[in-house]
Amino acid sequence: MTDYKGIRTFEELLDKEYGEIGAESRNEYEEKSQMFIVSEMLKEARKNANLTQEQLAEKAGTKKSYISKIENAKGNIQLSTLIRIFEKGLNRRVGLTFL
Predict the structure, then answer these.
(1) Which 8-state DSSP code applies to residue 52?
(2) Which of 1, 32, 34, 43 is 20 to 30 A from 98 (CA-CA)?
(3) 21-60 pLDDT, tens per residue?
């Protein structure tokens, strides 16, 4: 069992659980976290647009299975395809921030 005494911030908790930024396990955690966020954003935007996965796929020029894969945070996503799904399929602009 992990000892959490002395941990005061979420960043410290992540360091303890997954290693410091740059560690392989931390990078894997960060990647999965970002994928989950993207999947939830897509799911919410699609539902707000009252579209099924199939309808969104048709509008965006991709397959329903690809939309499903993204919404379930599975597999790799090409950035260009993700942008196309949001912009063509959902009429939403995509902005990127690099930290």
Answers:
(1) -
(2) 43
(3) 999 999 999 999 999 999 999 999 999 999 999 999 999 9
Residue 99 has pLDDT above 90, yes or no: no
Q: Assign domain 10-90 to a CATH class.
A: mainly alpha
**Residues contacting 55, CB < 8 A, separation 6+:** none
As a whole number of angstroms, the distance between CA 54 and CA 62 comes to 9
Spatial contact of 73 and 36, defined as CB atoms under 8 Å apart? yes
Q: What is the dihedral of CA 27, 33, 83, 57, to 10 degrees?
A: 130
Output the pTM of the full model.
0.81
